[in-house]
């Protein structure tokens, strides 16, 4: 990756772009190798099928639903067991459909965000293409590691849920579905976290434009888009709440409890680096403007010429605009979306529980 261009540096303690970019440049070889790694399995399967993201998600959800409903064809189940199997099938199929249908838009959107940040990043267009290509790829050793971790976590979860004590037809569907969901989460979430960390590092070497914050607003989009995917999987737990109500076992919510802190990290990481640079740029700019104002106001204001007073007015106006510049790489709509998406899962869970209690009370 070529060295960033030299820029005029305000007085202060903020590091130069080259110093800030050093951690990213040390990973240059790894990032180039990542760009040549295989695509994520979900993306490769979608490319093989040649389907749009929506159709792909629906197909994955429909196939998994059909597989999980096989016990209906084998057993003459009582109504309570039918309800349990149907609720479980809805949960797993909706989770698979969300992961499959949203993965491609998330990584393509991240690549578009990276391209939109070209004006504020000291990274060449060619290197941005390499970084964008790596956003959807995972080296084979890492893939095998995540696969093993997913199988281990899924096996432990199956044991805690008591799946191994079910009749074999019921056990087969529940075990396969649980293992597959954990594997998909391990193949998806760590990659999203890695991408978020990349945007954090890019943010630390960015040159934010305080007067045109839209130029670095793509950092906010990079935080929101993967968060939506995780929030979608969390909303799938509403099915389990409706099915089980207050009797929901704590072991059932292990996936949700793991996803929540991950969600917060994926939102915070892409914003951390750019927010630091915005603060540094604002501080240095205000310091430089204050120094210019002090050089002008060495004489009494009444003795200053009209042109000097006009210069002071321009500097004061610029200082006010810089001081009021947004500290987050988000517009108002972006902030509203973050607030909405963060509170949406708890609200849906609460609403589902209230509906369940109301129905029980009426019945």
Labels describing this entry:
363 residues; mainly alpha; 0% strand; disordered N terminus
Structure, briefly:
The protein is mainly α and 363 residues long.
User: Number of helical runs?
Assistant: 14
Low-confidence stretches: 1-23
Structure class: mainly alpha
Q: Would you list the SSEs in sequence order as H and E?
A: HHHHHHHHHHHHHH
Q: Give the tally of β-strands.
A: 0
Terminal CA distance: 67 Å
Overall pLDDT, averaged? 80
- Give the overall form: elongated
Radius of gyration (Å): 26 Å
> In percent, how helical is the residue content?
over 70%
* Most strands sheet: none
Proportion of residues in extended strands: under 5%
Write up this protein:
- It is a single chain.
- The chain contains 14 helices and no strands.
- It is mostly helical.
- Helix 8 (140-161) crosses helix 9.
- The longest helix is centred in the C-terminal third of the chain and has 43 residues, at 254-296.
- The radius of gyration is 26 Å and the shape is elongated.
Q: Which helices and strands occur, and which strands form pairs?
A:
Blueprint: H1 17-26, H2 28-35, H3 41-49, H4 53-68, H5 71-74, H6 79-116, H7 125-134, H8 140-161, H9 168-204, H10 218-235, H11 237-244, H12 254-296, H13 306-323, H14 332-362
Helix pairs in contact: 1-9, 2-7, 4-6, 6-7, 6-9, 6-10, 6-11, 8-9, 9-10, 9-12, 10-12, 10-14, 11-14, 12-13
């Amino acid at each position: 990756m070529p060295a960033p261009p030299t820029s005029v540096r305000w007085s202060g303690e903020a590091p130069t772009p080259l110093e800030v970019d050093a951690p990213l440049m040390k990973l240059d070889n790894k990032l180039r190798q990542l760009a040549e790694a295989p695509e994520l399995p979900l993306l490769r399967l979608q490319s093989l099928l040649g389907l749009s993201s929506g159709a792909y998600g629906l197909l994955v959800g429909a196939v998994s639903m059909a597989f999980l409903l096989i016990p209906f064809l084998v057993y003459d189940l009582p109504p309570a067991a039918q309800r349990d199997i149907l609720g479980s099938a809805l949960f797993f199929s909706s989770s698979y459909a969300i992961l499959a249908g949203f993965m491609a838009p998330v990584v393509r959107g991240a690549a578009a965000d990276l391209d939109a940040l070209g004006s504020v990043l000291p990274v060449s267009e060619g290197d941005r293409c390499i970084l964008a290509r790596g956003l959807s790829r995972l080296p084979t050793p890492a893939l095998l590691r995540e696969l093993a971790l997913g199988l281990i976590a899924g096996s432990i979860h199956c044991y805690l849920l008591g799946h191994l004590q079910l009749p074999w037809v019921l056990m087969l569907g529940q075990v396969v579905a649980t293992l597959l969901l954990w594997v998909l989460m391990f193949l998806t979430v760590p990659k999203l976290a890695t991408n978020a960390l990349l945007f954090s590092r890019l943010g630390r070497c960015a040159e934010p434009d305080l007067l045109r914050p839209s130029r670095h607003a793509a950092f906010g989009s990079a935080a929101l888009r993967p968060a939506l995917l995780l929030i979608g999987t969390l909303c799938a737990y509403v099915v389990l709440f409706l099915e089980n109500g207050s009797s929901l076992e704590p072991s059932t919510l292990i996936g949700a409890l793991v996803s929540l802190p991950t969600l917060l990290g994926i939102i915070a990481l892409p914003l951390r680096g750019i927010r630091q640079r915005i603060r540094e740029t604002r501080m240095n700019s205000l310091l430089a403007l204050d120094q210019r104002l002090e050089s002008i106001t060495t004489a009494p204001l009444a003795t200053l010429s009209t042109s000097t007073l006009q210069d002071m007015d321009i500097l004061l106006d610029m200082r006010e605009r810089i001081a009021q510049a947004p500290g987050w790489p988000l517009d108002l709509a972006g902030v509203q979306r973050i607030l909405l998406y963060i509170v949406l899962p708890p609200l849906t869970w609460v609403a589902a529980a209230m509906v369940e209690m109301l129905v029980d009370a009426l019945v």
